[in-house]
Amino acid sequence: MTEPILANEPMLRLAVFLGVLVAMAGWELAAPRRRQDIPRVLRWTNNLALVVVDTVILRLTFPILAVGLALMAEERGWGLFNALNLPLWLAVLLSILLLDLAIYLQHVLFHAVPGLWRLHRMHHADLEFDVTTGLRFHPVEIVLSMVIKLAVVAALGAPAVAVLLFEVLLNATALFNHANIRLPKGVDRVLRWVMVTPDMHRVHHSVLPAETNSNFGFNLPWWDHLLGTYRAQPKAGHEGMTIGIEQFRTPRDLWLDRMLVQPLRGPASGGALDSRPEDKR
Question: For the residues of 66-81, what is the DSSP string, one character each?
Answer without folding.
Answer: HHHHHHHHHHHT-SHH
